[in-house]
Backbone:
């Protein structure tokens, strides 16, 4: 039961990430310097939550 709840949470997070990526890909690559630290902290938070 707990595992299925966790996997659904993960899939929701994945879809959120893919939405962020599609938004990022539309941005000019100059913004990558701002995006990278944001993404790094986001990934760290993901790891901390799991």
Residues:
């Amino acid at each position: 039961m707990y595992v299925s709840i966790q996997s659904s949470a993960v899939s929701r997070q994945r879809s959120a990430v893919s939405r962020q990526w599609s938004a990022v890909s539309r941005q000019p690559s100059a913004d990558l310097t701002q995006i990278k630290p944001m993404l790094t902290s986001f990934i760290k938070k993901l790891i901390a939550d799991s």
The chain has one domain: 2-49.
